[in-house]
Every structure is written in structure tokens, then in C-alpha cells.
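Q: what sequence does this backbone want?
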């Protein structure tokens, strides 16, 4: 059993915790909390041990929560830490806690790449990550781009890829960032996502731009890709259908928006209505003058969750990438 501690219990942390609880080769040792809130209350009701991150014990006692100890206690009890703190606290935690206690850790994509020994997407570079002490699971957008571009590159070869990212303004529960009545362009060229893709797809020629729009549901990417080998639309559709953690949205299902994808996930009885696959609309895949075009949707709260589980196994020396991915998919209900 791999003993896992989770530092940070927000949007990603609570989902990683639930995913760990579903693994038969992992044991959740506990989570950290800054202060009491409903998420900590629900975790405690699930009998997840809660460890104090700050010296505010009375705040938890006042709400009936008996702490299991402090962050150092959690780290010492764990084989590996999954740090789900907001940036840049992951790097600070590494220097303050993980390095002195010689503990392995997984970080999230909000951190700079130098926080870890390697950046990670399971389908792209699992084998390169085996045994690493510090692994960074890249962001939701970078994960989405990497999954589909990696599949295309392996099957047809990618000469170059261009993507416009249409980004949600905030997560659904993040009321401090909204409501937003604006479209905000990014003047960073390329946006940081393109260089980040190259941290896992090392030779990929990819350029990205981004805009932020007033929605909370999903990100959307519009991609155009020049391939080395000619690919018919049907070939691309079939490739994506057999690609792990990519879901082709069939045109006969009449799902034409991110809102309908999220409703679809709920009707599939996914936990929290999450959809961890990258969703590619079949009707949006097309060729023009030898260039491939397609739109894809990314559920920003969920697509990196299976990557965290696989990153744990890779860091702990599990050497079979295919087996880990399949095991994770089966436990999380990913088709």
C-alpha cells in the first residue's frame, strides 16, 4: 500500500482524495486544512484524518473536529505527498517541509516547472517519470493539449500545431472572480500553454494563444494541426475513439456546447458531474488544404485527477504505464 498525504483540500485536492480512496494499492493518510469550512467538515464525516496547517487548533475544536496532528505529522506518516496548494505555495512547501523530511511529492500545474524533476502527462512520459522524487502534473489545459496532440503525433506525425484557448473565467464555486462581463485577451505570445506542452511532448512544435470568457463550465480549444502523413477525418475520429482519456462526442447525440457536455456527465452519473476525458466534437473535425482542424473541451476541475494517481505510481516506482492508466481509468469510471 502506498501511503498518501494530501496538502490542500480545494478544487483539485478534494477530487484527488476521493480518487485515492478508490485505489486498491493506496491508502489516504489524511489531508491538511488552513481553517474550518464545509469541505473540511465533509472530509471529517468521511473519516478522512485532518491535519492542521496553521496553529489554529481552537478553530477546528469549536466545530467538533479532532485534529490528527500537524502537517509534519502527516508528511512523516506518508510515503508521498500530493500538494494541491494554490500557486506558489507548492514550491514553498517543498522547501519548508518535503526537502527537509526527504519526502517525495506531486505538484500541480500552477507551479513553475522547476519545482519538480519532471512535468507529467501519463500517456506522454510516464516511463520518464518512474522513480522521480518530485513530479509536476501539468495544468488542465496543458494536459488536454498533450493528450490529443500526443495521439496525433504517434499516429500521423505532427509538423506543427496551433491552438486558441478559450478559457473559463473561474471555477463554478469561485465567486470572488465573478460575475465577469468581458472577453479578456492574453497578450502573452505564445501563451504559457504552448511552452508547457513541450515539457511533456519534448519536440512538439506548438504555438498557443488564449482569451478568457465569462463562463465557469469548461475551457475550449480550437486546434489546427499540420500532419506529416495525410489523415482522413474518419481516421482521426477512430484514433481519438481509441485514445485513452479522450472522449469523442458523436454528432448524432446533439451535444453542441460545453453546458450540454457537463449535463451529459451528470446523466452518466459521474461523481460531482466531472468529466475527466478531453471531449472532442466529432462534427468539428475537418480538413482544409491538408490541415486538420478540431475543437475540444476541457473540464478544468477534473481532467488532471487521473494524472495525479498515475504520477503517484510512477514516483513510487511502478513500471507499467499501460497497467497504471487502465487501473486508474477503471477505478474512476473513465471509459
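A:
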Amino acid at each position: 500500500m502506498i501511503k498518501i498525504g494530501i496538502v490542500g483540500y480545494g478544487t483539485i485536492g478534494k477530487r484527488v482524495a476521493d480518487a485515492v480512496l478508490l485505489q486498491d494499492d493506496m491508502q489516504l493518510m489524511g489531508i491538511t486544512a488552513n481553517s474550518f469550512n464545509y469541505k473540511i467538515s465533509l472530509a471529517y464525516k468521511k473519516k478522512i484524518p485532518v491535519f492542521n496547517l496553521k496553529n489554529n487548533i481552537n478553530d477546528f475544536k469549536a466545530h467538533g473536529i479532532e485534529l490528527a496532528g500537524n502537517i509534519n505529522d502527516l508528511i512523516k506518516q506518508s510515503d508521498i505527498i500530493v500538494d494541491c496548494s494554490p500557486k506558489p505555495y507548492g514550491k514553498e512547501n517543498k522547501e519548508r517541509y518535503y526537502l527537509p523530511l526527504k519526502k517525495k511529492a506531486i505538484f500541480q500545474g500552477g507551479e513553475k516547472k522547476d519545482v519538480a524533476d519532471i512535468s507529467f502527462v501519463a500517456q506522454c512520459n510516464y516511463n520518464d517519470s518512474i522513480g522521480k522524487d518530485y513530479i509536476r502534473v501539468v495544468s488542465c489545459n496543458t494536459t488536454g493539449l498533450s493528450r490529443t496532440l500526443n495521439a496525433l503525433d504517434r499516429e500521423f506525425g505532427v509538423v506543427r500545431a496551433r491552438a486558441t484557448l478559450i478559457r473559463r473565467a473561474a471555477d463554478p464555486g469561485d465567486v470572488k472572480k465573478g460575475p465577469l462581463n468581458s472577453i479578456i485577451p492574453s497578450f502573452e505570445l505564445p501563451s504559457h500553454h504552448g511552452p508547457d506542452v513541450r515539457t511533456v511532448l519534448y519536440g512538439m512544435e506548438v504555438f498557443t494563444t488564449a482569451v478568457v470568457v465569462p463562463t465557469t463550465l469548461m475551457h475550449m480549444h480550437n486546434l489546427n494541426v499540420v500532419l506529416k502523413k495525410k489523415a482522413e477525418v474518419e481516421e482521426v475520429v477512430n484514433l481519438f475513439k481509441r485514445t485513452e482519456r479522450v472522449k469523442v462526442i458523436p454528432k448524432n447525440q446533439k451535444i453542441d456546447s460545453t453546458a450540454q457536455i457537463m449535463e451529459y456527465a451528470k446523466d452518466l452519473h459521474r461523481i460531482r458531474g466531472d468529466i475527466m476525458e478531453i471531449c472532442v466534437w466529432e462534427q468539428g473535425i475537418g480538413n482544409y488544404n491538408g490541415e486538420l482542424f478540431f475543437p475540444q473541451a476541457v473540464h478544468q476541475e477534473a481532467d488532471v485527477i487521473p494524472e495525479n494517481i498515475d504520477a503517484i505510481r510512477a514516483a513510487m516506482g511502478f513500471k507499467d504505464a499501460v497497467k497504471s492508466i487502465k487501473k486508474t481509468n477503471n477505478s474512476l469510471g473513465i471509459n
